[in-house]
Amino acid sequence: MNIQTEDSFRILPKKLLSFTLDSLNQVAYLFVNLKIGPNALSFMALVSGIGAGVLFFLKHPFWAGIAIVICGLFDILDGKVAVNANQKSLFGAIFDSALDRYSEFFIYLGLAAYFRNHWALWLTFWTILGSSMVSYTRARAEGLGIECKIGIMQRAERILLLFLAAMIGSLFNVFDPAMITALAIIAVFSNITAIQRTFYVKKVEKQEKFRREVQ
Protein backbone atom coordinates (compact mmCIF):
# COMPACT_ATOMS: atom_id res chain seq x y z
CA MET A 1 0.00 0.00 0.00
CA ASN A 2 1.35 3.42 -0.96
CA ILE A 3 -1.36 5.97 -0.40
CA GLN A 4 -0.75 9.53 -1.49
CA THR A 5 -1.20 12.33 1.00
CA GLU A 6 -3.91 14.94 0.66
CA ASP A 7 -3.29 18.68 0.41
CA SER A 8 -3.38 20.60 3.68
CA PHE A 9 -2.87 24.14 4.87
CA ARG A 10 0.69 25.31 5.38
CA ILE A 11 2.04 28.59 6.70
CA LEU A 12 4.29 28.97 3.66
CA PRO A 13 2.31 29.29 0.40
CA LYS A 14 2.81 26.27 -1.83
CA LYS A 15 3.46 28.52 -4.84
CA LEU A 16 6.33 30.15 -2.95
CA LEU A 17 7.75 26.74 -2.02
CA SER A 18 7.51 25.56 -5.64
CA PHE A 19 9.12 28.77 -6.92
CA THR A 20 12.01 28.41 -4.46
CA LEU A 21 12.60 24.78 -5.39
CA ASP A 22 12.51 25.56 -9.11
CA SER A 23 14.88 28.52 -8.66
CA LEU A 24 17.47 26.30 -6.98
CA ASN A 25 17.58 23.90 -9.92
CA GLN A 26 20.32 25.91 -11.65
CA VAL A 27 22.40 25.94 -8.48
CA ALA A 28 21.94 22.18 -8.22
CA TYR A 29 23.26 21.74 -11.78
CA LEU A 30 26.34 23.75 -10.76
CA PHE A 31 27.10 21.23 -8.01
CA VAL A 32 26.46 18.39 -10.44
CA ASN A 33 28.98 19.87 -12.88
CA LEU A 34 31.47 20.29 -10.04
CA LYS A 35 30.90 16.61 -9.21
CA ILE A 36 29.86 17.39 -5.63
CA GLY A 37 27.56 14.59 -4.55
CA PRO A 38 24.32 14.84 -2.56
CA ASN A 39 25.80 13.15 0.53
CA ALA A 40 28.52 15.81 0.68
CA LEU A 41 25.83 18.50 0.61
CA SER A 42 23.90 16.71 3.36
CA PHE A 43 27.05 16.75 5.47
CA MET A 44 27.59 20.45 4.74
CA ALA A 45 24.03 21.09 5.93
CA LEU A 46 24.90 19.33 9.19
CA VAL A 47 28.04 21.43 9.62
CA SER A 48 26.01 24.59 9.01
CA GLY A 49 23.42 23.50 11.59
CA ILE A 50 26.13 22.83 14.16
CA GLY A 51 27.66 26.21 13.33
CA ALA A 52 24.32 27.94 13.88
CA GLY A 53 23.98 26.31 17.29
CA VAL A 54 27.48 27.34 18.31
CA LEU A 55 26.86 30.91 17.12
CA PHE A 56 23.64 31.13 19.14
CA PHE A 57 25.53 29.93 22.21
CA LEU A 58 28.24 32.55 21.59
CA LYS A 59 25.54 35.26 21.23
CA HIS A 60 26.06 35.98 17.53
CA PRO A 61 22.43 35.67 16.35
CA PHE A 62 22.93 37.44 13.01
CA TRP A 63 25.57 34.99 11.84
CA ALA A 64 23.60 32.13 13.35
CA GLY A 65 20.69 33.18 11.13
CA ILE A 66 22.98 33.16 8.07
CA ALA A 67 24.17 29.67 9.03
CA ILE A 68 20.54 28.52 9.33
CA VAL A 69 19.80 29.73 5.79
CA ILE A 70 22.89 27.95 4.47
CA CYS A 71 21.78 24.79 6.28
CA GLY A 72 18.32 25.04 4.71
CA LEU A 73 19.73 25.63 1.23
CA PHE A 74 22.07 22.63 1.42
CA ASP A 75 19.14 20.57 2.71
CA ILE A 76 17.19 21.41 -0.45
CA LEU A 77 20.13 21.10 -2.81
CA ASP A 78 21.17 17.61 -1.73
CA GLY A 79 17.88 16.22 -2.98
CA LYS A 80 18.02 18.26 -6.17
CA VAL A 81 21.55 17.09 -6.92
CA ALA A 82 20.59 13.48 -6.22
CA VAL A 83 17.81 13.71 -8.81
CA ASN A 84 19.70 15.72 -11.44
CA ALA A 85 22.84 13.58 -11.17
CA ASN A 86 20.84 10.34 -11.06
CA GLN A 87 22.40 9.49 -7.70
CA LYS A 88 19.26 8.72 -5.70
CA SER A 89 19.76 5.82 -3.30
CA LEU A 90 18.18 4.32 -0.20
CA PHE A 91 21.33 5.09 1.78
CA GLY A 92 21.32 8.69 0.55
CA ALA A 93 17.70 9.12 1.59
CA ILE A 94 18.21 7.89 5.16
CA PHE A 95 21.58 9.68 5.43
CA ASP A 96 19.90 12.96 4.47
CA SER A 97 16.98 12.45 6.85
CA ALA A 98 19.24 11.49 9.75
CA LEU A 99 21.55 14.48 9.28
CA ASP A 100 18.53 16.79 9.02
CA ARG A 101 17.44 15.66 12.48
CA TYR A 102 20.94 16.13 13.88
CA SER A 103 21.40 19.59 12.35
CA GLU A 104 18.06 20.81 13.70
CA PHE A 105 18.87 19.35 17.12
CA PHE A 106 22.18 21.22 17.29
CA ILE A 107 20.44 24.48 16.41
CA TYR A 108 18.02 23.99 19.30
CA LEU A 109 20.86 22.82 21.54
CA GLY A 110 22.65 26.11 20.91
CA LEU A 111 19.47 28.01 21.78
CA ALA A 112 19.02 25.90 24.92
CA ALA A 113 22.57 26.75 25.96
CA TYR A 114 21.89 30.43 25.26
CA PHE A 115 18.71 30.33 27.40
CA ARG A 116 20.27 28.08 30.06
CA ASN A 117 19.52 30.60 32.85
CA HIS A 118 16.15 31.65 31.44
CA TRP A 119 12.69 30.08 31.66
CA ALA A 120 12.75 29.80 27.84
CA LEU A 121 15.07 26.83 28.29
CA TRP A 122 11.96 24.72 28.92
CA LEU A 123 10.40 26.09 25.75
CA THR A 124 13.32 24.79 23.71
CA PHE A 125 12.63 21.30 25.09
CA TRP A 126 9.04 21.41 23.82
CA THR A 127 10.31 22.71 20.49
CA ILE A 128 12.75 19.80 20.18
CA LEU A 129 9.97 17.37 21.07
CA GLY A 130 7.53 18.83 18.54
CA SER A 131 10.07 18.97 15.73
CA SER A 132 11.11 15.37 16.39
CA MET A 133 7.51 14.17 16.46
CA VAL A 134 6.76 15.84 13.12
CA SER A 135 9.55 13.79 11.56
CA TYR A 136 8.70 10.62 13.47
CA THR A 137 5.00 10.58 12.57
CA ARG A 138 5.82 11.04 8.89
CA ALA A 139 8.41 8.26 8.97
CA ARG A 140 6.08 5.93 10.88
CA ALA A 141 3.21 6.61 8.50
CA GLU A 142 5.41 5.97 5.48
CA GLY A 143 6.54 2.73 7.14
CA LEU A 144 2.86 1.78 7.09
CA GLY A 145 2.65 2.62 3.40
CA ILE A 146 1.02 6.03 3.74
CA GLU A 147 2.72 9.12 2.32
CA CYS A 148 2.20 11.73 5.01
CA LYS A 149 3.48 15.23 4.26
CA ILE A 150 0.55 17.14 5.71
CA GLY A 151 0.78 19.65 8.54
CA ILE A 152 0.99 23.34 9.29
CA MET A 153 4.53 23.37 10.75
CA GLN A 154 7.00 21.46 8.62
CA ARG A 155 10.78 21.79 8.36
CA ALA A 156 10.73 24.73 5.92
CA GLU A 157 8.47 26.73 8.25
CA ARG A 158 10.63 25.94 11.27
CA ILE A 159 13.83 27.00 9.51
CA LEU A 160 12.21 30.22 8.26
CA LEU A 161 10.90 31.16 11.72
CA LEU A 162 14.30 30.58 13.33
CA PHE A 163 15.98 32.67 10.63
CA LEU A 164 13.50 35.54 10.94
CA ALA A 165 13.77 35.56 14.72
CA ALA A 166 17.57 35.64 14.51
CA MET A 167 17.57 38.48 11.96
CA ILE A 168 14.88 40.61 13.60
CA GLY A 169 16.35 40.00 17.04
CA SER A 170 19.88 41.01 16.03
CA LEU A 171 18.94 43.98 13.81
CA PHE A 172 16.52 45.55 16.30
CA ASN A 173 18.25 44.36 19.48
CA VAL A 174 15.23 42.31 20.58
CA PHE A 175 16.69 38.85 20.24
CA ASP A 176 15.23 37.27 23.38
CA PRO A 177 11.56 38.19 22.76
CA ALA A 178 11.86 37.50 19.02
CA MET A 179 13.36 34.04 19.47
CA ILE A 180 11.05 33.15 22.36
CA THR A 181 8.09 34.01 20.13
CA ALA A 182 9.47 31.87 17.30
CA LEU A 183 10.17 28.94 19.62
CA ALA A 184 6.67 29.17 21.09
CA ILE A 185 5.08 29.13 17.63
CA ILE A 186 7.21 26.16 16.57
CA ALA A 187 6.53 24.29 19.82
CA VAL A 188 2.76 24.68 19.56
CA PHE A 189 2.25 24.12 15.86
CA SER A 190 4.83 21.35 15.40
CA ASN A 191 3.04 19.31 18.06
CA ILE A 192 -0.26 20.10 16.33
CA THR A 193 1.29 18.87 13.07
CA ALA A 194 2.31 15.60 14.74
CA ILE A 195 -1.30 15.17 15.94
CA GLN A 196 -2.60 16.00 12.44
CA ARG A 197 -0.41 13.29 10.94
CA THR A 198 -1.42 10.74 13.56
CA PHE A 199 -5.12 11.23 12.90
CA TYR A 200 -4.55 11.39 9.15
CA VAL A 201 -3.35 7.78 9.33
CA LYS A 202 -6.56 6.90 11.18
CA LYS A 203 -8.59 8.62 8.47
CA VAL A 204 -6.77 6.76 5.70
CA GLU A 205 -7.27 3.46 7.51
CA LYS A 206 -11.03 4.07 7.73
CA GLN A 207 -11.16 5.00 4.04
CA GLU A 208 -9.31 1.83 3.08
CA LYS A 209 -11.63 -0.34 5.18
CA PHE A 210 -14.68 1.28 3.59
CA ARG A 211 -13.22 0.86 0.10
CA ARG A 212 -12.62 -2.84 0.69
CA GLU A 213 -16.13 -3.31 2.08
CA VAL A 214 -17.85 -1.79 -0.95
CA GLN A 215 -15.77 -3.72 -3.48
How does this model look, in words?
It is a single chain. By secondary structure, the protein is mainly alpha-helical. It is globular, with a radius of gyration of 18 Å. The protein has a single domain (14-210), classed as Four Helix Bundle (Hemerythrin (Met), subunit A). The model has no long low-confidence stretch (mean pLDDT 92). Helix 3 packs parallel to helix 5 and helix 5 (90-114) packs antiparallel against helix 6 (120-143). It starts with 13 loop residues before the first helix and ends with a helix. It is 79% helix and 0% strand. It has eight helices and no strands.
Quick gist of this model?
This protein has 215 residues and is an all-alpha fold.
Number of structural domains: 1
Low-confidence stretches: none
The SS-based structural class is mainly alpha
Q: What is the rounded Rg?
A: 18 Å
Please tag this protein with its features.
8 helices, globular, 215 residues, Four Helix Bundle (Hemerythrin (Met), subunit A), 0% strand, 79% helix, mainly alpha
